[in-house]
Specification:
With 221 residues, the chain is an alpha+beta fold. It has two domains: 24-49 and 134-220, no CATH class; 52-133, no CATH class. The protein contains six helices and ten strands, in the order ααββαββαβββααβββ. It has helices spanning 2-24, 29-40, 79-95, 119-122, 174-177, 183-190; strands spanning 48-51, 62-63, 99-107, 110-117, 132-135, 137-148, 155-165, 195-203, 209-213, 218-220. The protein starts with a helix and ends with a strand. The model is unreliable at 10-23 (pLDDT under 50).
Amino acid sequence: MIKQAKINIMLIIGLLFTLFLSGCDSTDYKARIQRENDRKNPSANKSACVAVGDLRQNDYPYTIKYLVGEIDPDDRWDKIKLNNRLNLRLSLFAKEGLFTAEAVGYDGDKPLYRYDLTDEGRKYVNWWGGTNFCFGRIVVDSIKNVENAQDGDNLRKVNFIYHLENIPTWIQNKAIYSMYPGYGDIEAAVTGKQTVGTHYYRFNSNNELKLIRGESGIYIL
């Protein structure tokens, strides 16, 4: 009986401690996360960026090439697979008016095209290396939940519901967004539906929350 009483007391203390933690956190996460996203995306058009080719290189104007051989399905960076994907992406973005496409000859019986950015394409490029087209502004609709992350109380994880605004028509093309991994989340966002984002925070020595990873400014390869 004494043992049961001790267990009950421990359970009550644990419950009170949990309530204490949740009650002490008076952070307005909805307003804070909106500010953080807007601060990282002041133009309101760079919530996310989709890579076209190698982010480390400025290749344009670029003439496509063809590589021959078998694709290794287990190698994420297989050269033939990446080259085929680049050729496809260039052709699709050209159809949306972000690249020019100039026929410049043949490789055997395969046509060669030279691609260059159009004025429209340059509107969406965030230059720091290779070509990546950026778009959108996150609008926080509500907070889904707040929890301590797995490595302890020092790390806080906040999941929130949001939608995108300032969505250009080219990213709404399913042929384009479906080329990117995990495109289910992209599909929801670029078609104006609500989706879930996450911000991670760490408490500093003054017990203040500091953002360590946010949603805006992501690169989708």
